[in-house]
Amino acid sequence: MRLVIMQGLPGAGKSSVVARDYQGLQVVCLDDIRRALGHVFNPATETLVLAHAEIAVRAHLIGGRDVVVDDTHTRAENVLRWLHMGREHGAEVWLHRVECNAEECIRRREGSAVRREDIERMAGNLGRWVITRESFDQVITEEG
Length: 144
Prior knowledge:
single chain; 6 helices
């Protein structure tokens, strides 16, 4: 059983990679949860989004199913949440990074609800990581 944590800026191509590489796995996409709650991103409801995602991921792991968590995961504490949950349930934990420079992601997301300053802030967060590659069973890095 494995838990795959997708990571990358908005517009990097994470969901495309999930569709290409992880067919047949359970996918918990936080953007889908946000849309189900009626918005793209709202700090006031982000706790609810994460709670819903945690319930879904935990249920899949309890059921012994491979699961992919599709979100930006630009802050270390968000990755640690899934890393600890995966370990708790005896899953292999993979980190799949989809790299794309901020300017390209901004261009790709032009006209969407994601603002330039949001992508720039997330890009800065990626540069402040304290989690090592050795924390994961596998790390995949590719260009988006």
